[in-house]
Each structure stands twice: as structure tokens, then as C-alpha cells.
Amino acid sequence: xxxxxxxxxxxxxxxxxxxxxxxxxxxxxxxxxxxxxxxxxxxxxxxxxxxxxxxxxxxxxxxxxxxxxxxxxxxxxxxxxxxxxxxxxxxxxxxxxxxxxxxxxxxxxxxxxxxxxxxxxxxxxxxxxxxxxxx
Length: 135
What we know:
This protein is mainly beta. The protein has one helix at residues 64-69; strands spanning 6-8, 15-21, 29-33, 38-42, 49-51, 54-56, 81-85, 88-94, 98-102, 107-113, 123-133. The mean pLDDT is 94.
């Protein structure tokens, strides 16, 4: 069964928990954001998801093969929790376990495990990120 897209629009101080699946190139749950807002992201560092059997926290790990083939965010650990604006890696950014980010463009914010584009079929598990709008 195909997962439905779910959009969340948060008010200041409102929070939502989003499950991010390791196999999804972009999460099906997304945050609708406006330029000038600010969000806090938190993923418990004890959570784990799997890259072809390699266990990882939201901080990711050093994957030599992914480094050779090129990850979506090259200077960020493989399997680090990341976010992207409007289904584009152009301005994607790392979250890891925690991050505060001012929004620099309006649209939708989706989440993903940093990996090579063609390697998502061997990814398993999910993590939960708590997103709080701070301003």
C-alpha cells in the first residue's frame, strides 16, 4: 500500500512527531514552512535505522563506499537525518540528533536518511524526529 502525503502546518511553539523511513528518498510527512520562521528538530540519539545491515543513529556513520559513490550531501555522514526544501537536494541540510534552523524559503520541508540516490532499496527501519516551530 502506498503511503499518503501528510502536510503539517505548525503555529509558534507547536510540535509534531514525524516518522522518517530510511527507504524514502523524501518523507511522506512534511512541514509547510514560510520564509522567516524557525524550527527546532530533535531525534533521540538512541534510535536506530539500518543501511544494508549497518546500524546507525540519526547522526549517521562513515560509509567508505557511499563516500566513493557520492551521497546526497557529500560532506555529511551517511544515514545522517537530513531535510530538504520542496523535494530538492539543492538546499538540503543535516539535522542529525538536533538542529535549529531558520527557514530561508517557503514551501514544504521533507526528511531523509543521507545516502547515495540509487541505494535506498537496501535501507530499513525508521526514526522519529520531533519538529517544533520556535518563531
